[in-house]
Amino acid sequence: MTSRESHELAHPAEGAIELGRDVCCALDRSFEMNPELKKELGKIVGENEIKFFEKLVMTDDARHLIMSDEMKTAYSQIAKRELERIAAEDEDDDDLLCGHTVDEHQNALKFVLEKMEPAVN
Questions:
Q1: Across the chain, what does the average pLDDT equal?
Q2: Is 7 domain-assigned?
Q3: Taking the CB of residue 5, how many other CB atoms lie within 10 A of it?
Q4: Which residues span the domain enclosing 45?
Q5: pTM beyond 0.85, yes or no
Q6: In what helix (H) or strand (E) does residue 63 lie, and over which residues does it extend?
Q7: CA 8 to CA 92: how far, in whole Å?
Q8: How many domains is the chain built from?
Q9: Residue 111 above 50 pLDDT?
């Protein structure tokens, strides 16, 4: 499955991963706060794909997605980097304008790491 074949499902299918509002918000902020990694990932999976992956999480709604390996790689790498950045900068709730807490974002990013580890052959 290519990234273009990954799509939002009206009725979740087997294997779909639910991205809740908190997960979408945390990933959206991760892309925003880590532009260098976003650029690096674009070289690996393609610039258009990274833009597409970022656009998918720029929402206030939960989503159910069947993830391609490229999506899993991009989302897990950006989540990992964002968790590191939050810890290094000692970010607190006042730094977030979305209404979530830092703990909520961290938990959402940990969910991403848990659910989106790319398959290893």
A1: 84
A2: yes
A3: 8
A4: 3-115
A5: no
A6: strand 63-65
A7: 32
A8: 1
A9: yes
